[in-house]
# Entry
Amino acid sequence: MKKRLGFLLVCLLLIGTFTGCGSNSGDTAKDDSSSDGKLKIGISMSEDTQFLTNVRKAAEKRADELGVELIANSGQGQVEKQINDMEAFITMGVDAIVFNPLDRDAMNEVVDKVKAAGIPLVEVNTFTSNDNYDVYVGSPEEDAGRIQGEWIAKNLGESGGVAIMYGQMGHSGQIGRYEGLKTSLLDKYPGWKVVVDKTGEWKREMGQSMMEDWLQSYKGKINVVASQNDEMAMGAIAALEEAGMLDQIKVLGIDASPDAIKLVREGKMALTVFQDSFGQGTKALEIAVDLASGKPSPGKKVDIPFQEVNKDNAADFEQYLKEWE
Amino acid sequence: MKKTSVRDFLLKYMMAMLLVLIIIAMSILRPEFLSGENLLNILRQISVNAILAFGMTFVIITGGIDLSVGSLLAVSGVFAAGLIKNGAGILPACAIGILAAGLLGFLNGLTISKLKVPPFVITLAMMTIGRGIAYVHTDGRPIVDLDESFLVLGRGKFLDVIPWPIIVMLLVMGIMALLLYKTKYGRYVYALGGNEEAARVSGIKINKIKTIVYTVNGLLAGLAGIVLASRINSGQPQAGVSYELDAIAAVVIGGTSLSGGVGSIHGTLLGALIIGVINNSLNLLGVNQYYQMIIKGLVIAFAVIVDVASTKKNK
# Structure
């Protein structure tokens, strides 16, 4: 008897879970359609990194302020899942989509599908090679690499050895940031050589283990580590601190995440480049709402500029980030 | 007496009833759920997982497990994509991709049967090896912009209505069901999982059967890799990460017992369908993605509880 009861309980619980979340969302949906035709926007993120989560949070905050419903999803690093998420948005008939594609090329078909369904599409942070989207809101990736390259030339002289930590290979950020570094440093100053370069897939733990290995194999040859994001840079710093070599090798990051800015203020990270995740998310959402309500497009590309974060201005950026907490 | 039979009935059809329940609930909550396009979307979305899960069903019926299929899928995808990019014909490229995955599956089977290594461990090793091969082959970058005619498999439609991945899935299902239910090989697979020692004594070539099971599983992972590469128009070295777990989940939800000897192909399709319908439903309902994970996990837990409850009864 007891067993049977427990079993029934499990069933009820499960059914409850489904009907529970079903009816909740159902109610809100009904409210939308019946009351004031509240706009419904979908936002599909590629992954859940801290940076991209900030983009989403900013969009959510702005959606709240504007009184639109925002449905958020993440591909969690899988192309196929993100395509499925996008297809679900089409089926739901959302009024506009904010899209942060995981891959330049693999998402091209779904971009066409969204447009065929007549849904305004705003890409944010990364963009697809299929330029059928309406607007791209992002920061020109080359600038981030250029800011790093210029800092190196200005502060470390015209020759030396640089180690490069790439993000995910083929990612538009990886390609663009390298381009910027190349044109501003490697092409301009032939005295600067790439000692070693490798992908750390944006991950802190990979940056750390790569740096540990490099300290063994390239002792004394590396003057500066140009990391394509803060996560890997922070991994490198941890490895350098452990080896007691942080004063000999400068580490540069990109993204200006809160913990990276703190390291810059403390002088442990030489530089990071502020990419305004909040600005991107806010702007992308605003444009999506505008397009959904029939307002004209602001143009194909909207830039949220990169900014250099160094020891002198780190505190200002910390203040800005605090306002977003 | 009557009560126990009701309980048996409930247990047996619990997951099917769950599916029907979700479908009914969704058609009320979100009428667009029942649109032809959405239903075809769901079927296409589950096709890769279902193809993997059909092979996995055999593996699990023999009492084994294969954690390497997600990686084998990537190996096949990047091999085929690389060959196509270098101007090889589509068919040979796909064949080589599938065979490469099949070969790795064969190695799984060989080590498990001859060297008596636990499947969990050796396929875990193969998972890492396969992923490594995929990264080496691509140098970490996805191979993109494949020949248009290759994309037909993942994006085209049979008779302009049914996406090809669905057709492939149904074909695989038909073949695997025939193999399992209608051939001597299928009977041996059950016998092996039911009681390996008894099967050995009765003269079944256990090593051979096991090797075939893992080889076929590799080949199917390869096929799934081709379908996926075609669908996403690229050979991605990180494709299929954790797909083995989704495949195992589909098999278990479909009533195949992890302790071996019991299981069915149609059950596995049901399992894949439940996962796909739940994913799609939660998406359409706009449920927070993190809750989606919890709900998916609960369904798997529920399926295993049902499984345990019904086997206890049988004993």
Q: What stands out?
A: The first strand of chain B starts at residue 143 and ends at 144. Strands of chain B lie at 143-144, 157-158, 162-163, 234-235. The radius of gyration of chain B is 20 Å. Chain B touches chain A through 51 residues (CB under 8 Å).
